[in-house]
């Protein structure tokens, strides 16, 4: 079984037209039709891991990549391989400066919808907004940007493909390269013409 998990402020619809359109799509808490309750990354990974089948491939994008990397760490017996689009083991301080992160969080507090629209445009496109539960979405984002997953990425030994667009303005090539250096059995594909969102259309194999 192949599972997908999207990034913040998007939904399972982001996988339409990608190589994983026919996979089983999970959704982040507070997004779309998600049934997940936990908004702290580690607890969410534990919650997700209870649901996946043994022998699964996990395909995560951005924040979803972090959750799936943790899921693989906590449930190594269930996961056969990982595909991580635009991952980062540490968002604040590696992918983005602390000042930028704090400024965006304040922007969300001032006008949540405007902040979400701004973020989605930075990702590389707008499109239809999913149903968002503001409190859950905000809590999840705060957990993501403040988490340092370096020790957990370092412990991953399973086969992992990492993909990132050179034009990614969110997690960036720096985040993906750090993930590649940490995960022992990983390979890295950098696409010069892609951004944070368009990398999902890139054909790949693991």
Polypeptide structure, described:
The protein has one domain (2-201): Alpha/Beta hydrolase fold, catalytic domain (Rossmann fold). It is 37% helix and 16% strand. The protein contains seven helices and six strands. It has a six-stranded parallel beta sheet with strand order 2-1-3-4-5-6, with helices on one face. The longest helix has 13 residues, at 98-110.
Short description:
With 206 residues, the protein is of the alpha/beta class.
CATH homologous group name:
Alpha/Beta hydrolase fold, catalytic domain
What is the domain total for the residues?
Answer: 1
Number of helices: 7
The neighbouring-strand order within the major sheet is 2-1-3-4-5-6
Number of strand elements: 6
Low-confidence stretches: none
Structural class from helices and strands? alpha/beta
Rg from alpha-carbon coordinates: 15 Å
CATH class: Alpha Beta
Q: Under the CATH scheme, which architecture would be assigned? A: 3-Layer(aba) Sandwich
Shape by Cα distribution: globular
Major sheet: size, sense and barrel closure?
Answer: 6 strands, parallel
Notable traits:
16% strand; alpha/beta; 6 strands; single chain; 7 helices; 206 residues
List the helices and strands and how they pair.
Layout: E1 2-5, E2 24-26, H1 41-49, E3 56-61, H2 63-74, E4 79-85, H3 98-110, H4 112-123, H5 134-146, H6 150-155, E5 160-165, H7 172-182, E6 186-191
Parallel strand pairs: 1-2, 1-3, 3-4, 4-5, 5-6
Helix pairs in contact: 1-2, 3-4
């Amino acid at each position: 079984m192949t599972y997908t998990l999207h990034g913040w402020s998007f939904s399972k619809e982001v996988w339409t037209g990608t190589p994983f359109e026919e996979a089983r799509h999970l959704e982040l808490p507070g997004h779309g039709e998600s049934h997940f309750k936990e908004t702290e990354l580690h607890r969410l990974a534990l919650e997700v891991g209870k649901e996946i089948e043994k022998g699964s491939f996990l395909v995560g994008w951005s924040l979803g990549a972090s959750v799936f990397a943790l899921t693989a760490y906590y449930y190594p017996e269930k996961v056969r391989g990982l595909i991580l689009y635009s991952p980062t083991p540490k968002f604040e301080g590696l992918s983005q400066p602390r000042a930028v992160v704090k400024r965006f969080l304040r922007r969300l507090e001032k006008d949540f919808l405007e902040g979400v629209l701004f973020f989605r445009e930075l990702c590389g496109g707008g499109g239809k907004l999913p149903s968002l539960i503001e409190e859950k979405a905000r809590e999840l984002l705060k957990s993501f940007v403040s988490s340092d997953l370096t020790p957990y990425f370092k412990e991953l030994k399973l086969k992992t493909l990492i993909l990132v667009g050179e034009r990614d303005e969110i997690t960036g090539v720096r985040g993906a390269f750090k993930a590649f250096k940490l995960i022992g059995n990983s390979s890295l594909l950098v696409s010069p013409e892609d951004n944070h969102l368009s990398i999902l259309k890139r054909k790949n194999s693991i």
